[in-house]
Amino acid sequence: MSSPEQWTHPEPGAGPAAEAAQPSPEQVIAGLRATSEGGEELTQLLTPEGERVHSSQFDPYIADIDDEALRGLYRDMVLVRRADREANAMQRQGQLGIWVPLLGQEAAQIGSGRAMRKGDMAFPSYREHGVAYTRGVDLKEVLGIFRCTDHSSWDYKEHGFHPYCIVIGNQVLNATGYAMGQKFDGKVGDDNGEATVTYFGDGATSQGDVHEGFVWAAVYDAPLVFFCQNNQWAISEPTERQSRLPLYQRARGYGFPGIRVDGNDVLACLAVTRWALEECRHGNGPVLIEAFTYRMDAHTTTDDPTRYRLSDELEEWKLKDPIERVRAYLARNGGADHEFFDQVQADADAFAADLRDYCFNMPEPPPERIFSNVYAENSPVLDAQREEFLSYLDGFAAAGEH
Ligand SMILES: Cc1ncc(C[n+]2csc(CCOP(=O)(O)OP(=O)(O)O)c2C)c(N)n1
């Protein structure tokens, strides 16, 4: 971590008077720290203890969530967490090249993912395995990306879920263009309207592409929900070093609504995303949602978070676990019994075992597979590269080395 002095921002041309008005390093840190606390600004419908909080604005958006539906959301979260842990373990066993854990972000992803309808489109970054699952994408296909045998080969139109994007912020521009298209094509204007959700992290908000997306989406009233999962860390860079303001407040500068939701509260994420999508469907987009959450594992399996953050931070967030609060609520209110919880755990284990079996036996594609699914239409340049690559490989065969 840097020293307090590094965090001050001297004003240009500051004289002695201005110096006197400068906040102390402690004040600067206190101010910056405040931006990373949930506080009163946070929309929450289920507390970490599993108590329901009522909201006249957002309760109507989850009026259909009875015990059965809530059990469904619980099951979704348990399954994707179990799949995530299995994939992490498989990377450690050398079966995947890398893995990007979602641990801790299940509510943000399941809540927002389940808020979308058929006809809506999602543009993910690289951590949205939970959203992929809600869009009906087989997580086996997601594993293929990380085993380097495939590259987002699901039918994105059928699932309403675009390929993963590793280039930070790039998917926000793609999503903005897509949402502008929804507007130009007259697919916006009433309850049946279409909308788009794009996912990105707190770190991505420092990327120019995201700001450009904000500007274009705003001036064209694009039906786009900017869904920022503020998991507090951009690899080793904490959010408070990337913004003086809470991230959701940035929306105001672009002229559209911004809202901060408890990203560990699946009900709040569902309700707020449904609200934002409704705004977009009716032509009142875009909307920025900051889902305030925490990355409970490493950035990726190549990262060691113990080098830059303290374990007490993780311990604190364990108390706000997105799954435990739903379990507590269901158990306390008679919405589910032990049999249900045991069954979900068994289903999750079977789900993970299936992924593991598939991963170990994943078909190895021919080398030229890397050239497919790159462009929608044929590209002579890519065709030439593929031919060159194949004749290069043939050279090994001719030399008896392949
Ligand atoms: C354009 C670009 N710059 C840098 C990187 C390297 N990089 C990968 S992940 C990452 C941090 C992203 O943090 P955040 O946006 O908060 O998302 P998170 O990984 O926490 O979900 C960076 C800088 C990249 N992939 N793309």
Describe, in plain words, how this protein is organized in 3D.
With 402 residues, this protein is α/β, with parallel strands linked by helices. It has 3 domains: 1-37, no CATH class; 38-360, Rossmann fold; 367-400. It is 45% helix and 8% strand. It is built from 15 helices and 7 strands. It has helices at residues 16-21, 25-34, 67-92, 106-115, 129-134, 139-146, 156-159, 170-184, 208-219, 250-254, 266-281, 311-318, 322-332, 338-360, 380-398, and strands at 121-123, 196-201, 224-230, 233-234, 237-238, 258-262, 287-292. The longest helix has 26 residues, at 67-92. The termini are far apart. 41% of the residues are buried. The model is unreliable at 1-18 (pLDDT under 50). Bound molecules: thiamine diphosphate. Thiamine diphosphate (TPP) binds next to strand 2 and strand 4.
Short summary of the structure?
Residues 10-26 have a biased composition (Low complexity). Helices cover 45% and strands 8% of the residues. By secondary structure, the chain is an alpha/beta fold.
CATH superfamily of the largest domain: Thiamin diphosphate (ThDP)-binding fold, Pyr/PP domains
CATH architecture of the largest domain: 3-Layer(aba) Sandwich
**Poorly predicted ranges (pLDDT <50, ≥5 residues)?**
1-18
- Class of the largest domain in CATH? Alpha Beta
The CATH topology label of the largest domain is: Rossmann fold
Ligand catalogue:
thiamine diphosphate
Q: Give the terminus-to-terminus CA distance.
A: 50 Å
The largest β sheet comes out as:
5 strands, parallel
Count of domain modules: 3
Order of helices and strands: HHHHEHHHHEHEEEHEHEHHHH
Q: Which structural class fits the helix and strand makeup?
A: alpha/beta
Estimate the helix proportion, in percent: 40-55%
Mean pLDDT comes to: 91
Indicate the overall shape: globular
Strand content: 5-15%
Adjacency order of strands in the biggest sheet: 1-2-3-7-6
GO molecular function: magnesium ion binding; oxidoreductase activity, acting on the aldehyde or oxo group of donors, disulfide as acceptor
Cofactor: thiamine diphosphate
Organism: Amycolatopsis xylanica
GO biological process, one term: branched-chain amino acid catabolic process
